[in-house]
Structures are given as structure tokens and as C-alpha cells.
């Protein structure tokens, strides 16, 4: 089985895997990456931001073709999200080596650090630092749940944090990047089918990453005793918060986009007290950015308060020419899916590097969960696709 050599790493009793950046399980995977690369006679290096690179023909003339993904996971996540792209890349290089093929330009496999933001809260941290989308001082000061900074976590893992930051020389060496990834969700196809399962195909390409925003809404109340305050006398922000949560779902449904409240905070959080304040976080995304903003407007109107924007990412369109090359390498007509999730490929794309993605069928679409899964035959089809892509792009 393709992932079997990694499957025990960071495994919890509930069946998920927890592989936070720079912690024990992820360090074990980093060692695996280096050993796997060495067994294929690839040259391994760690860049200043802690991203791992395995080079084949690194000193060849010309710019590099790069494939890869990430090793880290969310808490109790699935084992496919990230590692599938790396295991597949090594399997592709192995079969190319066995066939006697050699690249005519530099070829690299990269594992980006802290893609999920599971430990330090900022997704795609390794690629964002590489492209200069995040300030080094800000990143190094990020803390995990135990109060450990990124700088301290890197140092403890033996990585010197002083090299963190934009690396334009490295970026300039990358001609194109292709990330193979487990399919997430059952996203709509132009013909109305949902996901690769609906299309009846093992492998597809990504068209775009949907625009995505996060907002925080703070609601004020009047704190008082739960046992002595008449209902009519209360200003209870938790009621408003509940209305806001329901409105997010109602508006998302009406607008045909995705809207989620996955985090709330009630202060002071006592069972027997009317809250002094309540906050909810809104995650909204969809094909049309206007509709994403409209959702927030509807929620603001319903609650009578303004939402504070915490982050906004515009639509990320993958490179059409590279995607056409990828499709041609794997046989022409392939399903083209939008992505509701962000990826390092999206970060590189925003930095001006031509990028494309390959998705491997996930029958249920479930991801960030122990239920995340691909059939072995589909994973093998993914390896074959990536092998064909490398052969086409680096010959
Ligand atoms: Zn991923």
C-alpha cells in the first residue's frame, strides 16, 4: 500500500493522525523524507523556512520543475492530506529512475512546512514565508497552544530560525510547481456531477481555489445573575450569537455558497451567569466573491453590528497552460474541479509561479478526518499521472 510506511506515525487511538509542524511525529516524517530521497540518490536540503527539498539534477542548467505537498496534518486528521503528494512524487521518481529516464533540467520534490496551520494557526506558513507573504518577525512570534513560539519550536528541532523569510533567489529558480493532493469535498463540476466520484474518474485537475474570507463578530451584553434576572430585563449576547449562527447558514444556503461558524467565545463563560460578551467567527467561501461578501452583509444586518475582517484571499486561478500540459500528459480530457481548501500551490500561484494541481479521487470527499480515504487503485493512478507529468515537464 502506498502510504503504509507512514501510517503509524502520529496515529491516535481514534484512528486519526496528529502531525504538527516541528513536533515529534512531523520530525519523524522529515527523517522519512530525507531517507527516501537518499535511497533515490536525490540531494536533500532544508531551506531557511524549514521547507524540505529533494533535488534530482540540481546542478543542471535551466529553471526547475517542482512537485510536492506537505507532511503536517490537522489535529486527528487523515493520513492522505499532504503525504499522498510526497509519497506519490517519490514513487514517480523511483519508477522514472528504474526506466532509465533522467531529467534534462533540475527536478525537485518539496515538502512545505506547517501547511495546515495546525500548530501556529497560520496556514501555508512555509510557502508564505518563502514568497514573502508573511513577515518573518510576525511568523517567528506565533505561539502554539502551549505558548511555544515558532522560533523556539524550530530551534528545539535543530533548525536555525534566523534564516526565515522571503527567498527570491529560490523562487526565481522554480519554473513551475505541480501539487498532487487527495480530493477534498465533492466539489461541483460544470456538468453538474459532484466530485471525481460523480464523474467516475480516479484523477482530476484543479481549476481554481475559491475566494475565502474570515470575519469576527463581537456582541456586547450586560452581565448578571442567571437566577435573579427576569428574562425581560436581560441583554444576553448569546441569544444574538445564536441568531447570527443560524443566519450564516440561512444566507449561505440562499446565496449558494459555503458559510460556517466553527468557533465561538462566550465571556466569562459561567453556567450561572448571563454573558458579558459573545463572539462568533464566520468562514465564508464560494465561487463568486460578491456573494461571499453579501453573506456577511446579511449577517451584519440581522445582528445590527459590523463584522471585523480577519483575513481575505481572492480567487486563485491555476495556470491554464501548465494545467493543459498536465492534462495532456495524463491523456487529455480530465475533470477540472474547484477547490474550497487553500494549498501551498495557491500561495506559489499568487507569487507568480505557474502552478497546477492533480486531485486523486476521495469517494466520500471527507477530509481532515480519520475517514479521509482514497482507494489504492486510485492512488496508483495518481502516481502514474504524476510520473507522466514529470516526464513531460522535465524531459
Ligand atoms: Zn493538504
List keywords for this structure.
395 residues; 9-stranded mixed β-sheet; alpha/beta; binds zinc ion; 12 helices
What does this protein structure show overall?
There is one protein chain. This protein starts with 23 loop residues before the first helix and ends with a helix. The strands form three sheets. Strands 1, 2, 3, 4, 5, 6, 13, 14 and 15 form a nine-stranded mixed β-sheet that branches. With 395 residues, the protein is an alpha/beta fold. The protein is globular and about 80 Å long. 33% of the residues lie in helices and 22% in strands. It contains twelve helices and 15 strands. Strand 3, helix 2 (83-98) and strand 4 form a beta-alpha-beta unit. Helix 8 (237-255) packs antiparallel against helix 9. Zinc ion (ZN) binds next to loops.
In short:
This protein is of the alpha/beta class and 395 residues long. It is built from twelve helices and 15 strands.
- The share of residues in extended strands comes to 15-25%
Instruction: List SSEs in N-to-C order.
Output: HEEEHEHHHHEHEEEHEEEHEEHEHEH
Number of strands: 15
How would you describe the shape? globular
Class derived from helix and strand content? alpha/beta
* Share in helix: 25-40%
Average pLDDT taken over every residue: 96
- Point out poorly predicted stretches: none
Determine the number of helices (DSSP H or I, runs of at least 4 residues): 12
Distance between the termini: 29 Å
Rg over CA atoms = 23 Å
Largest pleated sheet: 9 strands, mixed
Cofactors, ions and other ligands in the entry: zinc ion
